[in-house]
Amino acid sequence: MKTAFWLYLFLFLAFFDLHAQYPILTPFAISIGAAPVFIGWMMGIYALTHLPGNIIAGKVIDRHGSRRYIIFSLLTAGVILLLQSYVTFPWQLLVLRSLSGFVLAFLSPACLTLLASLSQDSVTQGKYMSGHGVVHTLASVISPAAGAFIVANAGYSGTFQSLGWLLIATGVMAIFMVPSSASILKSASKDGARDHTLLSDPLTQTQPAPISWRYFTLPFVVAFAQGILFFELPLRNTGISGIMSTGILFSILSVGALFTLGLFFLNRYSPVKRVVSGIMLMACCFFGLAALPNIPLVYILFVLGASKGLIFPAMALLFIRLSGGGRLGRVFSFQSIAMSLGSFIGPVTAGQLRGQLSPYFIAFLLLMVGLMMLPIPRQTIATRYPHSNPDVL
After folding, report:
1. How far apart are CA 136 and CA 313, in angstroms?
2. Phi, psi of 6 (to 5 degrees)
3. Average pLDDT for 74-95
């Protein structure tokens, strides 16, 4: 539990730093002469350069453990943010965002793998995933408004410098506080063997069947929709007052996520049911943004955040069960790859088509397509009616 506490602390600081940039980047890009189409590519290139990092991370994390890659991501991303404070041309911002996307591609798979390895019990793993979601959401509640406040008082350059030094300080703390994977596995094995429900679940065998690629369409469509939202919201107003209001809107989104993350009884339900319910709720919110302008934006964003709080812990637990508890680094790496693709294609699509079609409606359509792609286990007659006579049927 001590390891989980320190890891949650580092994750909080890292997520705070990253989410504080969301209401800032679009107005900053406009201030140095970037067009909306370029901004779409700038937001998307961060996710695109995640791909090679995710591909590398899956193998090296399973081989060498998570610790060194958490430290590498935090320190390098901090240095890049310091350089970002000196940007004067749009192409410079594009290059630094692409580098930042690569180095931070190691952070999420490494942290999720480390958290999942803290216990071999499925219920405890689910609680760790929920804790990860709570920490992520708490940081995202505070950071957008905090980032907007810092910009209003210190300007763009001072904001990027302060955020860069915060990431570097977090990386230095991680050097001394994050344990090696070998010591974590040793302590986890002392907690006891896996519970019988985990072993009896066909999704959690030690040698499970290969995971269907259709499961990875779920993180793709969710990240696609998120990318469109993060692109569209800051374009409502690009002045200082607009930055402040955008930061508050992002915080409302996170408050909604925190609401559902606090409903711990939801962990007793199937992760598949929670993911499906969350994506349906998210799709309804995007339909409301596209077609129902009379509904206050604050209400829609709160419900949209609630759907995120339902989806992400359940999705992480779903992939843990599908993997059978083995090769978690690669599984979370593939999940991050799917999310990177969605985060890249979403803003680029919004930047190209926002003059012809509402990007929110595109997000709604893709979320519904993602639900239709979800594999549904088929029950045989013998499974559904165990006491029946197959010859008669």
Report:
1. 11
2. -65, -40
3. 89
